[in-house]
UniProtKB/TrEMBL annotation, chain A:
Residues 65-258 form the ABC transmembrane type-1 domain. InterPro entries: BP-dep_ABC_trans_perm, MetI-like, MetI-like_sf. Its main location: membrane. The keyword NADP does not apply. Keywords: Cell membrane, Membrane, Sugar transport, Transmembrane, Transmembrane helix, Transport. The lineage of its organism: Bacteria, Bacillati, Actinomycetota, Actinomycetes, Streptosporangiales. Pfam families: BPD_transp_1. The chain crosses the membrane at residues 60-88, 100-122, 134-153, 190-212, 239-258. Belongs to the binding-protein-dependent transport system permease family. It comes from the Bacteria. This is Multiple sugar transport system permease protein. GO terms for biological process: transmembrane transport. It is found in: Cell membrane.
TrEMBL record, chain B:
Transmembrane segments: none annotated. It comes from Nonomuraea endophytica. This is Multiple sugar transport system ATP-binding protein. Residues 2-233 form the ABC transporter domain. Gene3D superfamilies: Nucleic acid-binding proteins (2.40.50.140), P-loop containing nucleotide triphosphate hydrolases (3.40.50.300).
């Protein structure tokens, strides 16, 4: 009996500690922006909205959220469209060595892209006049996301029985009609997942954007956040927390919207 | 009318799924392709639909050569084994989908879908999604969608196999009546011999990519042309017993039976008797196969009795209540029999 009580006590304390570990940063993010003089500890704020006024005065802050939307949205659209087409083809046509190709792509993309490939990518972007352009960022980050996106979407496509498409074909639908009427609606939860995932990864991405963009007018929020320091190099916690809160709102809104609109659900309709 | 000439399909890798198939299905006929799995029946159906391209041979539908036409231009409608009704569309949109492809205006499509749905008792379900329908309802939606496009022919791939046993019998009757009323040429694939016998006007029994026998259900049931068909057709398997012909008589598992004309001295034959046509005698008979009752299986209206006769098992169906006791000796007397030589029907 005592052993049982102690066991429950220990596990409850453990869960509480773990929860606190996750909850405290969130609490800080919710409280610090409204605090007149925030520190790195979480406390009940001396309520003020002055921090929001200050961040709106920052010449780059609001524009950077727009830049993030352009770059994240552009990359998400590009990744979803290209990955869907590639995954569909890979799922429906059997090419010799298809699986090896996919695994190789996935492996190389996680090893090569990112820090290791930074110098050649920068060189490539310079030669193609893509430095300091939204397009440059979109292309580079999309390239990094595509292999995983194709891999995940191919799984979704594999799970969609071909009899749907064959049925539409017998009724005379053209390949484009089949794609529009049947395949895309069927894998929409997958497409929504990939879109959200792509946008969220670009949203929080820093290194590519930091290196490929010179003009702060074009920098996304994740880079601008890095400029919110005093000349002495100390973080301006009031501005950083306020901007972090603002910067995270669009992503939260997007998650809610997508899960409500497309809902990661499936209707059935094939008798198994 | 659907006619096939020398239709052959060899898959990459060398599997010969169809081997020079010749077949004509008459207008309005309900035609069954019957065979064990892997015999090529589904491939044949898919080739008629245009989902597989034949290696050689040609396909005509109502006199037009459609061998090279894409599926959508053959004027056929197919119902898939898994129904393949689109999960993201409601019943109306599913039924109206073929009309949407033909650019029929929306209002007309909805009207047409409702009309077909009423006929198939789906009128109250028009706004449901497939996931909210029972198996039988899903099957009827798939049928309705096929009917809505007024095709020259229906192709059904195992249309009843996904329904549970009770529902299957109801759906069978329903399907046969519907086909009668619509009078549209229909080819359907099944591995269930009872289904083929019950539904079809004619049946083609297939094995290893070839047609083994084509005929009416009565012909196929009464005179299976080979021992393969004989063993495949019938709800209780046919007794197939080896025998020899000597001096104008057949010697089969201890019984002496009259030999048909055309048998030579010492020919090896297979003697086929359906258990339904096998009687049991309590007294010894020269024309009866002697055996000991080994198993009794209740079939409801009858009992399937298995006799052990030397190395052979002989089965007979007797009316309920008249079954012998286990272990007693009986003589199985064939009432109707078939004689096969080298696997082919002799008499």
């Amino acid at each position: 009996m005592i052993r049982h009580t102690v066991g429950r006590l220990v596990s409850t304390v453990f869960v509480a500690v773990v929860l606190a570990l996750f909850a405290l940063p969130m609490l800080w993010l919710a409280a610090a922006p409204f605090d007149a003089s925030p520190t790195i500890t979480t406390s009940v704020p001396e309520f003020t909205l002055a921090n929001f006024a200050a961040i709106l005065d920052n010449p780059y802050a609001l524009g950077s959220i727009g830049n993030s939307l352009i770059q994240g949205g552009g990359a998400a659209v590009l990744v979803v469209v290209l990955a869907a087409l590639a995954a569909y083809a890979l799922s429906r046509v059997s090419v010799p060595g298809r699986d090896v190709l996919l695994y190789l792509l996935l492996l190389l993309s996680s090893v090569v892209t990112g820090t290791a490939a930074m110098v050649p990518i920068f060189e490539l972007a310079t030669r193609l006049n893509l430095i300091d352009t939204h397009l440059g960022v979109i292309l580079v980050v999309s390239g990094g996301l595509l292999p995983a996106a194709i891999f995940i979407l191919k799984d979704f496509m594999d799970e969609t029985p071909t009899s749907y498409e064959e049925s539409a074909r017998v009724f005379g639908a053209s390949p484009l009609q089949i794609l529009r009427h049947i395949t895309v609606p069927l894998v929409r939860p997958g497409l929504a997942t990939i879109g959200v995932w792509a946008l969220a990864s670009v949203w929080g991405g820093f290194l590519f954007q930091f290196i490929l963009l010179r003009d702060p007018e074009k920098s996304p929020g994740s880079v601008i956040l890095y400029t919110l320091y005093t000349e002495g190099g100390a973080p301006k916690l009031d501005l950083i927390s306020t901007f972090s809160l603002l910067y995270s709102l669009p992503v939260v809104a997007m998650y809610l919207f997508v899960s409500q609109r497309y809902g990661f659900r499936f209707h059935g309709g094939i008798k198994r | 009318m659907i006619s096939l000439h020398g239709l052959t399909k060899v898959f990459p890798g060398g599997v010969r799924a169809l081997d020079a198939i010749d077949l004509t299905v008459a207008d309005g006929e309900f035609f069954a392709l019957l065979g064990p799995s892997g015999c090529g029946k589904t491939t044949l159906l898919r080739t008629i639909a245009g989902l597989e391209i034949p290696t050689s041979g040609n396909i005509r539908i109502n006199e037009a050569d459609v061998t090279r036409l894409p599926p959508g231009r053959r004027d056929v409608a197919m119902v898939f084994q898994d129904y393949a009704i689109f999960p993201h569309m409601d019943v109306t949109d599913n039924i109206a989908y073929p009309l949407r492809i033909r650019k029929v205006p929306r209002a007309e499509r909805v009207r047409k879908a409702a009309e077909v749905a009423r006929r198939l008792s789906l009128a109250d379900l028009l706004h449901r999604r497939p996931a909210q329908l029972s198996g039988g309802q899903q099957q009827r939606v798939a049928l309705a969608r096929a009917i809505a496009c007024h095709p020259a022919a229906f192709l059904f791939d195992e249309p009843l196999s996904n329904l549970d046993a009770r529902l299957r019998l109801e759906a069978r009757t329903f399907l046969k009546r519907l086909q009668r009323e619509l009078a549209v040429t229909t080819v359907f694939v099944t591995h269930d011999q009872a289904e083929a016998l019950a539904l079809a006007d004619r049946i083609a029994v297939m094995s290893a990519g070839r047609m083994v026998q084509i005929g009416t259900p009565a012909e196929i049931f009464q005179r299976p042309s080979t021992t393969f068909v004989a063993s495949f057709i019938g709800s209780t398997p046919m007794n197939l017993l080896p025998g020899t012909s000597t001096r104008g008589a057949l010697h089969v598992a201890g019984a002496v039976r009259a030999a048909p004309a055309g048998l030579g001295e010492g020919d090896e034959i297979v003697y086929g008797v359906r258990p339904e046509y096998m009687g049991l005698s309590e007294t010894e008979r020269q024309d009866g196969i002697p055996g000991t009752v080994a198993v009794l299986e209740n079939l409801g209206t009858g009992v399937l009795v298995t006799l052990e006769s030397g190395d052979h098992l002989v089965q007979a169906v007797v009316p309920e209540g008249s079954e012998p006791a286990l272990g007693v000796r009986r003589w199985a007397v064939p009432a109707r029999s078939l004689v096969y030589r080298d696997g082919a029907l002799l008499a």
